[in-house]
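In keeping with the milestone schedule agreed at the kick-off meeting, the structural modelling team has produced records for the first pair of proteins. Each record is given below as a sequence line and a C-alpha cell line. The laboratory manager (R.T.) confirmed that both were archived under the project's standard naming scheme.
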Amino acid sequence: MTQPCLPPDDLPALDSSFRELSWELEEVTGEIFYNNCDPITQGLLRQCGWDVTIRSQGLTLVVICPNHCLNWQVLQSLSLLAESLQILSNTAKIRIYPPPGTGTPMEVMVEDSFW
C-alpha cells in the first residue's frame, strides 16, 4: 500500500497561497478596468476610494464617495463605469457608497445596464 502524497513542510499553506493569488487577480483586474476608463473617469476615481473585488458572487466595482458632489458625479458616470467594467464581466456589479452617514450603498448590475 502506498502512502498519500503530502506536501513538504516548507511549502506555504494552501489558504495563504490562494489568498495571495486572489489578491493579485483583483489587483490586475482593477488595473485593467482603470486603464480602460477614459481620463475624466480616471480622475473621478482618483478622488474617491475604489476597488475591484472578486468573490463567489462575481466581480464588483466598489466606489466610496467622500462627499455629495463626488457622489453625484459618480452616479452620472454609471454608464461609463459599466461600459469599462463590462469588458471584464457581463455579470459584474457596481456598488456605490455615499458619503459616511448619508445613506445606504447603491448596487447596479452591469448586465441590467439601461445606458
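The second protein of the pair:
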Amino acid sequence: MVQRFDVGARMSEMSVHNGVCYLAGQVAVDGAPDIEGQTREVLASIDALLARAGTDKTKVLRAEIFLADMADFPAMNKVWDTWVVAGHTPARATVQARLAKPEWKVEIVITAAL
C-alpha cells in the first residue's frame, strides 16, 4: 500500500511505501532572506513531515541538497551540522541548480526509513 500526504494536483509532499518515506523537495515558504534562515525552515518542514509518517531525522537514508549558489555551501552546512544527529548522518549529495523561484536559495529532498 502506498500512503500519500498533502496530495495536490501536481505532487504529494510525501509518499510512504514498503517502510520508506519519500519527501518532495522542501523549500522555504516564509521567504527567509538568507541561506541559514531558509535552511532552518526547510529542515523544520522535513522534521514535521517525518513525524507525520512516524519517523525522524535519525532514520534519514539519503539527502539531496540543491543550492542556487554554491557560495552558500558553508553557511548551509553550518545549519545542517546542527540539525543532523551524530552517528546518524545520511548519504548526501549537494549540487548547484537553478531553483523554480528566484527567491529560493535551497531545496532539500529526503528519503527516510520508517
